[in-house]
Amino acid sequence: MAEAVAETGLPIAGPAAPPRSNGELVFAAPWESRLFGVTLALLERNLFLWREFQHELIEEIGAWELAHQNEESEFRYYERWQTALEILLEQKGICLASELEAHARDFAERPHGHDH
Length: 116
Description:
This protein is mainly α. The protein contains 5 helices and 2 strands.
């Protein structure tokens, strides 16, 4: 995964930079690392360009900051990442948000221990 991250030109600083600790990517929950991996897989398949995703991510972060500037809401980076990816996939006609929601619902309804 490290080579794939380096190839994307993933920023180390700035609004689109993912959380890091000692230079390593930090994920607060397993779904975040899976989302990151899915994004890299889609990039490797040339379904979109990194700069396209980065643009959506920066836009999403900015929109969240504007909407929550007077609140004490906790910023969750990978929630913004997920929204940006969903927007880009829909814009490109790859997958509609409603399809993603249906897949997520189906996945959540699977019995405990059914993870394959």
